[in-house]
Amino acid sequence: MTRKYLPTLSELIDRLSIAQLKEVFITDHKEEYAQEIKDIVHDIDLCLKETKHLDADVIRAVVVLSQMNLHIWHNESNYRKGIKDGNDLELTHGLNGIRNTAKNKIQEIAGGRKDYKIDCLAAEFKDWDISW
């Protein structure tokens, strides 16, 4: 089998999380997102065959990654709707840094390249900080 996507395992998991959100929230294109999910799952299976082991830390990183994607989704969606209360693009920026950290945690186990540009959370968003 050949891979259909060339990203790392963590990037595939991240994309799967986002495609899953799209399949649920953008129902006009549900079939297209279902196919994308199928392709990504195919490639994740190929990556997992090459991975030495997965552990609870990787599973936690996947959960954190998915949570951050959902929070970013809602934050940006509300912001676009003009709902500014509690929705801040600076928060999205900080959550994106947590996302990148989670992806790096996955890559520590799976191997492969990491993203070294991880921004810190602003002081007002410290409640979002993850207890790695």
Secondary structure elements and their pairing?
Blueprint lengths: L8 H17 L4 H21 L5 H25 L8 H22 L22
Helix pairs in contact: 1-2, 1-3, 1-4, 3-4
Provide the helix percentage.
Answer: 55-70%
Secondary-structure element order, N to C: HHHH
Give the overall shape, derived from the CA principal axes: flat
What structural class results from the helix and strand content? mainly alpha
Main sheet record: none
Number of strands: 0
Low-confidence segments: none
Mean pLDDT: 88
Characterization of the model:
There is one protein chain. The chain is mostly helical and 132 residues long. Helix content is 64%, strand content 0%. The radius of gyration is 16 Å and the shape is flat.
